[in-house]
Specification:
The chain is α+β, with helices and mostly antiparallel strands. The protein contains five helices and twelve strands.
């Protein structure tokens, strides 16, 4: 079906890249990861556990974005003597503004929510993309999602929004907390349940999600099992989205 002149189409992918190391052989997989993402031909990518500044090496998010996604933003979540890692958003459209929100909880790993506003043609409020990596404890995730809901409340009510990333929500409790904010999960809405994404070799847990609001339409983006299962300990989750254009 040809695209409607009244909508803008967006293909989005989210994946926890496990610091760019193959889970089976502990070898770098950035080149293979970039090739796999290029074959899917997505417009926006949300990355978690991607490496940033390291001595003598290019940040992984820059290497992945190079020549494909013209804009990118990075939010540092954790640092060590060898470098740092966090969330990143890669985009084929300009990123008008970005901000990383620290949602860490005491006694847990540092966590962040990276918020970018993308400039899309015909979308005056832009597309707001939140890339998240939530904690391992349910009590921490509850506080982190409450903070996310606060951030969403600061946006115009009719602004299109995507919240994507690694929710670590193996108990599937996120929907109850996010639905009152108008968010719905793409796979749950289409197929009745979230996509199982972890562990990559035999996924049994639905940890990675894509929530949306303010869309004309949304549906899961089918992805092959190969080569993703060998590129991280998570497989990616994708969505095809349609946004209403403002009437001329």
């Amino acid at each position: 079906m040809p695209p409607s002149p009244h909508t803008v189409s967006v293909k989005l992918l989210t994946i926890n890249v496990h610091k760019g190391l193959c889970q089976l052989h502990r070898r770098p997989i950035i080149v293979g990861l970039k090739e796999a993402m290029l074959r899917v031909d997505v417009d926006v990518v949300c990355l978690q556990e991607v490496l940033g500044v390291r001595e003598g090496q290019r940040p992984q998010y820059e290497a992945l974005a190079d020549t494909i996604w013209s804009d990118h933003a990075y939010g540092k979540n954790a640092a060590s003597p060898s470098g740092d890692h966090g969330n990143a958003i890669l985009s084929r459209w300009p990123i008008a503004r970005s901000r990383n929100h620290d949602v860490s909880q005491p006694g847990d790993e540092t966590r962040g929510v990276l918020h970018c506003q993308l400039t899309l043609p015909g979308i005056p409020l832009g597309l707001h993309v939140f890339c998240v990596h939530l904690g391992l404890r349910q009590s921490h995730r509850r506080h982190q999602m409450a903070r996310l809901v606060e951030l969403l409340a600061d946006l115009p009510a009719d602004a299109p929004v995507v919240v994507a990333g690694d929710f670590n929500d193996w108990q599937q409790r996120a929907d109850a907390q996010l639905k009152p904010a108008g968010l719905r999960e793409v796979h749950v809405s289409s197929q009745g349940r979230p996509l199982r994404s972890f562990p990559a070799v035999w996924p049994v847990l639905a940890l990675d999600r894509i929530y949306v609001r303010g869309m004309a339409a949304s549906q899961p983006l089918p992805l092959p099992r190969r080569p993703w299962w060998a590129l991280s300990d998570h497989i990616p989750v994708g969505a095809s989205l349609s946004l209403h254009k403002e009437a001329a």
